[in-house]
Amino acid sequence: MKHIFLINSFSLKDKTNKIKEIIEKICKEENIDFKIEINSKEKSTEDILEKYQKTKYIILPVGGDGTINRVLNKIVGTNNILGYIPTGTGNDFHRSNKELLEPGTHTIDLIKINNKYFINVACFGIDAEIGNHSDIIHSKWIPKKQRYNASLIKHFMTYKPRKMKIKIAGKEIEKEFTTVIVCNARYYGGGYKVGPFSSLQDGLMEVYLVEKTNRINMLGLIVGIKYAFHEKSNKVEKIQTKSLTIISEEEIEANIDGEILKNNHFDINIIPKGIKISYNKSLIDNIEKYLK
Question: Which single residue of 49, 147, 167, 210 could bond 245 by disulfide (Cβ 3.0 to 4.6 Å)?
Answer without folding.
Answer: 167
